[in-house]
Amino acid sequence: MVNLDWLQTFCTLVETGHFTRTAEKLAMTQPGVSQQIRKLEHHFGQPLLLREGKRFSLTEAGHKVYRQARQSLIELAQLQQDLGQDDPHSGRCRIASPGSVGLKLYPACLGLQQQHPQLQIEYQFAPNDSIERQLAERHLDLGLMTRLPTLPELQFNHFASEPLCLVTPANWPGVTWPELMQLGYIDHPDGRHHAQLLLGANYPEFEQLEQLPKRGFSNQISLLLEPVSRGLGFIVLPLHAVQAFSRQAQIKIWPMTTPVEEPIYLVRRRYQVNSARLAHLTELFAQHLLPD
User: Fold this and answer.
1) pLDDT in tens, 181-230
2) Helices in 45-165 by DSSP H: which ranges?
3) Tell me: the pLDDT tens digits for 90-119?
């Protein structure tokens, strides 16, 4: 790899047009400047300067090296400046989470963006598999998942937990196994997973979701409780999704003998530099997901 000091010396020489002024500007000796130019020419295997006494001109290779070196030095300087000015209230943030977590966090993200308009928050509601894939492909900066990631390029930590809730119509009399069989089940994309966790921990009769009469299905997180509120079945959902439903008087959350919580993992790419704005968002997420 080419030495950046040699490139800096070469660019300065081209711009000043004089070895002595280059040495003065870079606090070097003139022989030191000449030595770095010779090393750069040796690296590229061809002359970069045509020397004419105390004057010089650039070879064709010299012009090419100067243009590329100058652009590279500008970009590195900009990168250093950007890193030195890592503003927690400015920049792009690409985030994804399952729907229930998103219902809790997305309004908080919008509130933060209202306070700091230079933030650009892009929030996706997505299933775990999609979040994992997009993180690995660098389409996301941060993900919240409710299962452990499996790809080796990702790192994670247990961040929070969310209770699972059994929800029926408000006027439903009870949640014994026969009563659940009579009411029937409203399914959703994570329905099997949630039902196995909560029903499996509380009902000895439960073996698989297919035991229950299926009354409907929806993949819209904001509408999952709509059929329940209309008396069409029961559902198992994370707490944040239940709390976000607008007609709480038409549904009922039942306490379980064995409460079950679903873990929430904070996931990012391994070796990813955590920007100040992502660190600030992580603090915001903790305020809304962790118990007081």
Assistant:
1) 999 999 998 899 999 999 999 999 999 999 999 999 999 998 999 999 99
2) 60-84, 99-115, 128-136
3) 888 999 999 999 999 999 999 999 999 999
- Condensed to tens digits (0 to 9), the pLDDT of residues 111-148 reads 999 999 999 999 999 989 999 999 988 899 999 999 99
The CATH code that applies to domain 91-160+263-289 is: 3.40.190.10
CATH architecture of 4-84: Orthogonal Bundle (1.10)
Listed in order, the ranges of the chain carrying CATH 3.40.190.10 are 91-160+263-289, 162-261
Q: What pLDDT score was predicted for residue 26?
A: 76
Query: What is 162-261's CATH number?
Result: 3.40.190.10
Name the token pair of 4.
């950046």
| 3-class state of residue 197 by DSSP | helix
Whether the Cβ atoms of residue 191 and residue 236 lie closer than 8 Å to each other: yes
Could you tell me whether strands 154-169 and 91-97 are parallel, antiparallel, or unpaired per DSSP bridges? unpaired
Q: What is the pLDDT of residue 83?
A: 62
Helix, strand, coil shares of the chain as percentages rounded to 5?
45, 25, 30
Q: 17: phi > 0 → left, psi -120 to 50 → alpha, else beta; which?
A: left
CA atoms within 13 A on the CB side of 122: 8
Contact 140, 134 (CB under 8 A): yes
Cα–Cα distance measured from residue 38 to residue 48, given in angstroms and rounded to the nearest whole number: 9
By DSSP bridging, strand 185-187 and strand 214-217 are parallel
Distance of alpha carbon 197 from the chain centroid? 27
Tokens for 245, please give them: 């439903």
Does this model's pTM top 0.70?
A: no
Query: CATH 1.10.10.10 occupies which residues in the chain?
Result: 4-84
Contact in structure between 213 and 278 (CB atoms under 8 Å): no
Do residues 219 and 131 lie in contact, with contact meaning Cβ atoms separated by under 8 Å?
A: no
